[in-house]
Amino acid sequence: MHCGVLWFKLEGTRLILPVKYTGADVMHMLRHKPASALKVHLFPSGYAEARERFLEAAHHAHCDVESWPLQAPGPRQTELNIDVARWGNPHAANWLIVSSGLHGTEGPFGSAVQLELLNRLASKKPDPHQGILFLHALNPFGYAWVRRANEDNIDLNRNFLLPGEKYQGSHPLFRYVYQTFNPHRPRRIYHNFYLEAWWLISRYSKAALQASLPVGQYEFPEGLFFGGKAPSQTLTHLQWKTAVVVPGARNIVHLDFHTGLGKWASGRLLIDSQVGDDDYQWWNAWAPRDMVEPVTSQSTAYLARGTIGPWMKQIIFPQANYRYAAAEFGTYGGVRVLRSLVEELRSHYALDPDDKRYQAAKKLVQETFIPPSFAWRNSVLHQGVALCENAYRALPVNDLQRLQQGVSSVPAQAY
Length: 415
Known about the structure:
Helix content: 25-40%
Strand order of the largest sheet: 3-4-6-5-7-10-8-9
Largest sheet: 8 strands, mixed
Radius of gyration: 21 Å
Strand content: 15-25%
Distance between the termini: 41 Å
């Protein structure tokens, strides 16, 4: 039973996010100090507000800021930019990279983490040997239009192919998935997503679909998880500008924030399958217990093509000690997540923005990836910020024996 005000609307093309108060939320507020409850205001209501607040917070934290413009239309002709804030000496050797919004619908969470970190940094002086690089809204089009994909329907975390790989191919089963979830077929009265999903599972098995659907495809430009036919604007910006911003980087930890996989409000650090034993132990030495998970375990995630971590390591920081993890926080089950993506895709191609079904699809996908639950937002924000702070403290420590003594024994540097 909901105890608070529940409301949702679209003002023009601006999405207004509510906060729902359930019985569990009320109990959570009673057990916590009021100050912690106020943190949910850090979740922006939309891209324009997120960008404005990010730039303001970066200015107050005395960051060096630059904006990488995107050639794509925003709502009401809003300019779309990837905004970059550098806190620290550009020639420092040790860097924490915190990125958000690679998938547009997940942007508000990563943005909230970045805002809280910047607020805390406003009263700090950076260590001369290490710093933090904020990459805000890597997919500004998706963030602004409440879409997972970018302006070309590219799932950006399938677009970062390594040299020698081609933007070609798809799993043989994906053709049947595409035909079932036809993006040009709007939702009808008799339409039932769950019957369609049941038919696919009964015919091909759940395991087969998990191995074929989310891993990336390059043959259906209007389908889900499309990796593109060429490098995206985001990839091009990162390729030519990231290393220039932090020219002294030699030791890097990159946390890229996501939502939608895993148990409700539960965080996972999903690391590349090719990391060595030392790197795996390094993550486990400071991260919360059982939070580090190789993507090959397939417990929470799946092994996909064209993800950003391996590409950054090989293309941007080939000579550096670069460690990457997708900081993934769970929301709802896989069926609801898939349904929200299918409904949004259909609304994008088949419906007018004034159509109530279009608005319902946007609401569904936004609330699926950024639940309006107070308890969820408070929990994931606390976990996300703590991950960044602990990673920053562990960053300059490559001696595992020393690190395994506990993050608290690591000099806090600027914190």
